[in-house]
Specification:
Layout lengths: L1 H73 L8 H13 L6 E6 L11 H12 L6 E7 L2 E11 L2 H7 L7 H7 L12 E10 L1 H52 L15 H25 L1
Antiparallel strand pairs: 1-4, 2-3, 3-4
Helix pairs in contact: 1-2, 1-6, 6-7
């Protein structure tokens, strides 16, 4: 029973050591994984933002010129010629694969009032207006559905924009009929008029981090269990078995049995030295007893 109690003590010590190590690793790993997931989601948002920007450029340079003549012939306004419309529609298709991501071209003075910037979006746009060299801004905000992560890039009025947004008198008549002449005009070349916004709930990066954290802790737990079993096996083979043989031999000698075989004492470690010392003590004791018996 004593060797088993010794093994239990070793196991308790090892479990405490492994537990403390896993707790420390988990504490630092959780923050690291959350930051990594946060950066991963932002990088995905940047790729989506770049895709929307590419769609705006494609519409301006290729789609718009092709539709201008047709738009004049049918005497109606084709929203497909508007870069913001094209980018939003393209993102709506992408939204089916990334339902947690939302895209908006928030504008201070839009033609379509659905694009008007709300308070927090207007604050972000003001940051770009105050710092014209800043090309990106990201942050977190509280929403009724929970905390949200957002990425924004400025929208600057360029020459193609002013074809519709300079004054209402220069704007296409078909557009005026649809949207009126009260909104979306008096833009100035080079002014920051809005921002491309991509928002995603913080639950998304946190869920990614939690999955990675569970995988990490399960892996650490599995490695710790295998390590513990291997250490137990090593302790049994190197310590428990020799100590058990030594204990049995000492018990037999204490009961007067002098026919106990010598213990194997190969090697130079502490257990082997203990076995060698025990063998010398046993031989000396046996010799002394025999000398007393012969007198």
């Amino acid at each position: 029973m004593r060797p088993m109690r010794l093994l239990v003590k070793f196991n308790l010590i090892l479990i405490l050591v492994f537990g403390a190590g896993m707790a420390a690793a988990g504490y630092f790993a959780r923050s690291f994984l959350q930051q990594t997931a946060h950066d991963q989601v932002l990088q995905q948002a940047r790729l989506m933002m770049s895709s929307a920007g590419a769609m705006r450029t494609y519409t301006t340079k290729q789609v718009g010129p092709l539709l201008e003549q047709h738009q004049a012939q049918v005497n109606t306004f084709l929203a497909q010629t508007v870069p913001a419309y094209a980018a939003t529609e393209a993102f709506n298709y992408l939204h089916s694969d990334y339902p947690d991501y939302a895209y908006k071209e928030a504008t201070l003075n839009p033609t379509n009032l659905r694009d008007r910037a709300v308070d927090w979006e207007a604050d972000v746009i003001q940051i770009f207006r105050t710092h014209p060299d800043q090309k990106e801004f990201s942050g977190e905000r509280d929403t009724p559905a929970g905390r949200s992560l957002f990425l924004a890039k400025p929208i600057t009025a360029a020459a193609p924009c002013l074809e519709c947004h300079d004054t209402w008198r220069r704007a296409p008549a078909a557009m005026i009929r649809i949207y009126g002449k009260d909104n979306g005009f008096d833009w100035k070349m080079g002014d920051t008029v809005g921002a491309q916004m991509i928002s995603v709930p913080m639950a998304v990066p946190l869920a990614i981090a939690d999955r990675a954290f569970r995988t990490l802790m399960l892996s650490l737990g599995g490695v710790a269990l295998v390590t513990l079993l291997l250490l137990d096996l090593a302790i049994v083979m190197i310590v428990i078995r020799p100590v058990t043989r030594l204990s049995k031999a000492a018990d037999q000698i204490s009961k007067g049995d002098l026919n106990v075989p010598e213990l194997p004492a190969q090697g130079s470690d502490e257990i082997s030295q203990l076995a060698q010392s025990f063998n010398r003590m046993y031989l000396s004791l046996a010799k002394a007893i025999r000398m007393l018996e012969s007198q």
